[in-house]
UniProtKB/TrEMBL annotation:
Residues 16-73 form the KH type-2 domain. HAMAP family: NusA_A (MF_00945_A). GO terms for cellular component: cytosol. One of its GO terms (biological process) is transcription antitermination. It comes from the Archaea. One of its GO terms (molecular function) is RNA binding. InterPro entries: KH_dom-like_a/b (IPR015946), KH_dom_type_2 (IPR004044), KH_NusA_2nd (IPR058582), KH_sf_prok-type (IPR009019), NusA_arc (IPR010212), TF_NusA_bacterial (IPR030842). It holds the Pfam family KH_2. Keywords: Cytoplasm, RNA-binding, Transcription, Transcription regulation, Transcription termination. Gene3D superfamilies: 3.30.300.20. Residues 76-139 form the NusA-like second KH domain. This is Probable transcription termination protein NusA. Belongs to the NusA family.
Length: 142
């Protein structure tokens, strides 16, 4: 799948960066859940959120949808941990199934519901981002 940025997405990223001061490398418009998911540059999560959430709230109000942010990492394991945050990931192992990379993720028992989200929303977001950013075809929670 990979990251493909069209003019609309580039304009959205530019507005987000202007509103928050945080650099963003990707955005997904999740129409089903009425949200934008921004992948912010490594080390810029605090800037994206802002003091007491001021920046992310301003972005959501201006853009007209809930805005979620995930901090990018070149390391797929760290990226998956960032995607599941605040759920605590205790272990990640990878396997290959007919050429597809599969991540086997162990989540702390008390955080499983948070990792999955209502109707699987959080897990689906993580699967989508893992495929786009690191070519991980599937995530299995264990």
């Amino acid at each position: 799948m990979g990251v493909v940025l069209n003019e609309e997405k580039l304009a959205l990223i530019a507005r987000f960066e202007h509103l928050t001061g945080a650099g963003s490398r990707d955005v997904i418009a999740d129409e089903e859940n009425n949200r934008f998911i921004f992948i912010v540059n490594n080390g810029e999560m605090g800037l994206a959120i802002g003091k007491q959430g001021a920046n992310i709230k301003k972005a959501a109000e201006t853009l007209g949808k809930r805005c979620e942010v995930v901090e990018y990492s070149d390391d797929p394991t760290q990226f998956l941990k960032n995607c599941f945050h605040p759920a605590k990931v205790t272990e990640i192992q990878y396997s290959d199934y007919h050429g597809d990379q599969i991540a086997h993720v162990v989540i702390r028992d008390e955080d499983r519901g948070l990792a999955i989200g209502k109707a699987g929303k959080n897990l689906n977001r993580t699967k989508m981002l893992a495929l786009r950013e690191h070519n991980i075809q599937n995530i299995i929670l264990e």
